[in-house]
Amino acid sequence: MRTSKIALFVLFVVYFFSSIDRSIVGILAQPVKEELLLSDTELGFLTGFAFSAVYMLFGLPMARIADQGRRVNILALCVAFWSIMTALCGMSLNFMQLCLARMGVGVGEAGCLPTSHSLISDYFPPSHRTKALAIYGLGYPAGALAGSIIGGFVLDHWGWRTAFYVVGLPGLLVALATWWVVKEPQRGQSDSSDDPDSSLTEPRSFRDVAAMLCGSQVLRHMLFAMTVLAIFTSPTATFLGAFLVRKFHISYTEVGMIFGISMMLAASFSTLFGGILAQRLARRDQRWLLWFPAISVSIAMPFYVTALLQDSPYHLGYWLFFGALCNATYLAPCYTVLYSIIPPGGRAKAAVIVSILIGLVGQSFGPLLAGIASDMIAADRFGHGFAAACPGGMAPKGAAAVLDAACRGAVVDATQIVLIVTMIITVWPAFHFYLAARKMTPPFGRAL
Fold this sequence. Notes:
mainly alpha; 19 helices; transmembrane; transmembrane helix; membrane
């Protein structure tokens, strides 16, 4: 058990740095937009599709290797690669160079989730797996919290390029620690022979795993809910930092503190304790693994909408905290349901298929579509000639104060409308979590 705990801690640190390198663009979005003269559409593409599409494309072979090869070595190499590519983001001189560097980050991070989840599933038995996955999942909001605070501070003092160097290069030490400390466990060592899923045929290909996912009514509703939730929550991670700067004219350090504490600190508590609470409730009735996300995601929506209507950045942060506290509870319970259905030999493949749905469909198209909508609404609010009068959403240097105010006002209104609408729609996936729970029948892992 001590070896398992040490391995879990290192995997947590890996996910922590993965989250920093993945999410730091959100806090750096506005200065990057201003220096490189990007539209919100380009910003959405950069933070969403450019990263996630490559992440998903390379996730398929990474998962196949993880289910067959030495996972620890694969993970260590991936950490080193994405850390280098994050640092290279700081050297970008235009949109295309930054886009290619972000794609490189996606290539490296494609190996993180499938290998880590596969390792955790072999280190911990089903009775402890939800808690282990919750602790591991805590790395994402914790990393985003650290990235927001560190990124905002470095940005105010040394600029956005230095911020990429500061968060990227330490990952090389994490890669070395992963290779040195984590031991490769035997596959399936934590799945006892009398587990309901142990008798299932081991899937040999992505087609086999996809067939198992599609054949389960529980998983169909659950994965649909996770995908739609990703589509409509990912724009918040991309545009909230920019919205705070655009509307309230606060420093990037303040943005990092508000964004980090309000969203990511709350999400950290929610991911950990939400997973533990769901596991305890599931001992009474297994359907609580999906009832709990259905309830918490529904409660989150009014908090988010209230936050976005505030006239003070600190009042916004207050309401945002409670929204994030409710919204991030679904990951650990959902992955527990997934790995209770999928046998050990297909879990890395299942993880990457789920990542494709959440990442390629959700986190790729969510920010991109939100950026397109924001540009369209801003152009409508401003009137004719928005693109020419407000390049990058701002008036040119030396422009009249009236033009500057008109440009900024149109962009602020557009961003606020898009974020509010996307958060209202999150009630939809909550309903599908409920439908998935209705399809769960005992014994757990067999008739799901």
